[in-house]
């Protein structure tokens, strides 16, 4: 039997998965959680797709709960949330030295309404070039965000929403309720 606090977290995740789509471009699924990080864990995976069904971002969100975590690990409420996001980037954006700081600010701004403590993480920009038999494949650039934080409240819905928002933002989608500009000469056409 799950502790009540963790059961509420599971119920919140189930409501999000069974509820209306967060965004039409975003697909969320339940996934197995790692078993060795905390006594209780749950996880979601997510993918962001373009209109042509090409995946342009993906991520995982892991909710960890340790009833002794608040005392032994300095986790607020015994919870820790671990997030991973990988998104394709336009080469010009990946070349910008500030993209890591900007992506980190997206995360903090998205988490602000939900309340968080002890946030930490890394952002990596990667350029992949192909050689040999794959020499005809174009270079790719991507951003990876890895972060963890402790929720300061009992409701995890805002933390899931923040992860979804950052995943969509790193994929180049406009904020919810904002229409994207049509393709234009010299534009990226995302």
Please tell me about this protein's structure.
- The structure is a single chain.
- The chain is of the alpha+beta class.
- 27% of the residues lie in helices and 33% in strands.
- The chain contains five helices and six strands.
- The protein has helices spanning 4-18, 69-72, 91-95, 99-111, 157-170; strands spanning 26-31, 40-49, 55-65, 79-89, 116-128, 140-151.
- Strands 1-2-3-4-6-5 form a six-stranded antiparallel sheet.
- A hairpin with a 5-residue loop joins β2 and β3.
- α4 (99-111) runs antiparallel to α5 (157-170).
- Residues 184-190 have low confidence and may be disordered.
**What's the overall geometry?**
globular
Fraction of residues in H or I helices: 25-40%
Mean pLDDT level:
88
Q: Please state the CA-atom Rg, rounded to the nearest Å.
A: 18 Å
How much β-strand is present in the residues? 25-35%
Q: Which structural class do you get from the secondary structure elements?
A: alpha+beta
Tell me about the largest β-sheet: 6 strands, antiparallel
Order of helices and strands: HEEEHEHHEEH
Strand order of the largest sheet: 1-2-3-4-6-5
Please count the helical segments: 5
Record the SSE blueprint.
Blueprint lengths: L3 H15 L7 E6 L8 E10 L5 E11 L3 H4 L6 E11 L1 H5 L3 H13 L4 E13 L11 E12 L5 H14 L20
Antiparallel strand pairs: 1-2, 2-3, 3-4, 4-6, 5-6
Helix pairs in contact: 4-5
């Amino acid at each position: 039997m799950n502790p009540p606090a963790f059961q509420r977290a599971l119920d919140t995740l189930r409501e999000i998965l069974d509820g209306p789509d967060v965004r039409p471009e975003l697909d969320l699924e339940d996934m197995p959680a790692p078993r060795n990080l905390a006594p209780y864990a749950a996880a979601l995976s997510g993918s962001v797709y373009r209109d042509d069904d090409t995946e342009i971002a993906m991520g995982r969100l892991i909710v960890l709960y340790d009833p002794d975590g608040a005392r032994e690990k300095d986790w607020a409420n015994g919870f820790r949330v671990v997030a991973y996001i990988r998104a394709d980037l336009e080469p010009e954006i990946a070349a910008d030295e500030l993209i890591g700081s900007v992506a980190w600010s997206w995360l903090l701004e998205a988490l602000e309404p939900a309340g968080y403590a002890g946030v930490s993480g890394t952002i990596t920009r990667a350029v992949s070039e192909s050689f040999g038999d794959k020499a005809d494949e174009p270079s790719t650039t991507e951003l990876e965000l890895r972060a963890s934080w402790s929720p300061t409240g009992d409701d995890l819905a805002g933390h899931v929403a923040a992860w979804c928002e950052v995943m969509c933002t790193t994929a180049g989608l406009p904020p919810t309720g904002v229409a994207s500009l049509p393709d234009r000469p010299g534009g990226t056409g995302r």
